[in-house]
């Protein structure tokens, strides 16, 4: 029996750490690591991060965009990185932020969530701003195969306020409405006492009151970018996320990757320990 993705995230936090290590091979980082700006360079970068993370954390998040500039060879490199991470027992979140309608969204989901697919990950990020219902194909596929989807709900970039803080029917913000709609689906598909597998992306620097956010049920994992380089500190987690703090996967990339190939493993251990729940 396949363990639902939400429960696998819960186990990863309980047995390893809530730190989610981003695999973001920026061109500047490739240069710092002594690697070529090429498909071979991003492949080597990704594999080294996987090797450094495998014995400390439970989750990694390759940023798809940094592999795409190298075309088919870049995607082949990403396939190798994802496969290595999953073979090492890590949960892989493909940070693809796909969002479309109907069969197009279903095809995106098939690429990332179908067992045996060359790009098979454990979860993907998805953009709901064509309507949460447009993601139904991804949700259905995820539920069928024990996969996860992290839906963008409240991001911390300044430009997000125009669309995400707008109100629906003069009451709930768009961010709150997204969480409500996804949570309603989670309530229909999640066993009582378990974490749901359709989670949310909520930036660590987001003011919940300003964004109109409250709690949600059933519990679902939160992918929280913004820790480390972007300004949020592990000590801020409880204050920023409140009662939802236990659900958070704290995503960090440059704060760790800037340590270089020789220091990345120690940086992961240090940052994981800063969340106070690392088990290594």
Could you tell me how far the N terminus lies from the C terminus, measured between alpha carbons in angstroms? 27 Å
Task: Look at the helices and sheets and give the structural class.
Answer: alpha/beta
Strand content: 15-25%
CATH topology: TIM Barrel
Helix count?
Answer: 12
Strand arrangement within the widest β-sheet reads 1-2-3-4-5-8-9-10
Biggest sheet character: 8 strands, parallel, barrel
Helix content: 40-55%
Gross geometry: globular
The Cα radius of gyration reads 18 Å
Overview of the molecule:
By secondary structure, this protein is of the alpha/beta class. It has one domain (5-274): Aldolase class I (TIM Barrel, Alpha-Beta Barrel). The protein contains twelve helices and ten strands. The strands form two sheets. The protein has an eight-stranded parallel beta barrel, surrounded by seven helices. A two-stranded antiparallel sheet has the order 6-7. Helix 5 runs parallel beside helix 6.
């Amino acid at each position: 029996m396949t363990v639902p993705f939400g429960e696998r995230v819960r186990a990863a936090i309980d047995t390893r750490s809530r730190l989610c290590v981003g695999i973001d091979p920026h061109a500047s980082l490739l240069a710092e690591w002594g690697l070529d700006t090429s498909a071979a360079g991003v492949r080597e970068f990704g594999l080294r991060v996987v090797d450094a993370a495998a014995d400390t954390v439970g989750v990694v998040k390759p940023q798809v965009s940094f592999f795409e500039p190298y075309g088919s060879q870049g995607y082949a490199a990403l396939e190798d990185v994802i496969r290595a991470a999953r073979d090492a027992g890590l949960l892989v979140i493909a940070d693809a932020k796909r969002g479309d309608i109907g069969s197009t969204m279903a095809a995106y989901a098939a690429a990332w969530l179908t067992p045996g697919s060359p790009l098979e990950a454990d979860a993907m990020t998805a953009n709901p701003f064509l309507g949460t219902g447009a993601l139904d194909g991804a949700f259905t596929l995820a539920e069928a195969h024990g996969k996860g989807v992290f839906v963008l709900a409240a991001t911390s970039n300044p430009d997000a306020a125009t669309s995400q803080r707008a109100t629906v029917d003069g009451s709930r913000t768009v961010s709150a409405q997204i969480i409500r709609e996804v949570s309603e689906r989670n309530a229909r598909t999640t066993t009582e006492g378990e974490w749901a597998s359709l989670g949310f992306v909520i930036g660590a620097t987001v003011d919940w009151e300003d964004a109109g956010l409250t709690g949600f049920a059933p519990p679902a994992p939160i992918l929280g970018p913004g820790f480390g380089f972007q300004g949020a500190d592990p000590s801020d987690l409880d204050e920023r996320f409140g009662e939802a703090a236990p659900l958070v996967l704290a995503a960090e990339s440059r704060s760790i990757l800037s340590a270089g190939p020789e220091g990345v493993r120690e940086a992961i251990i240090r940052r994981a320990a800063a969340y106070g729940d690392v088990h290594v």
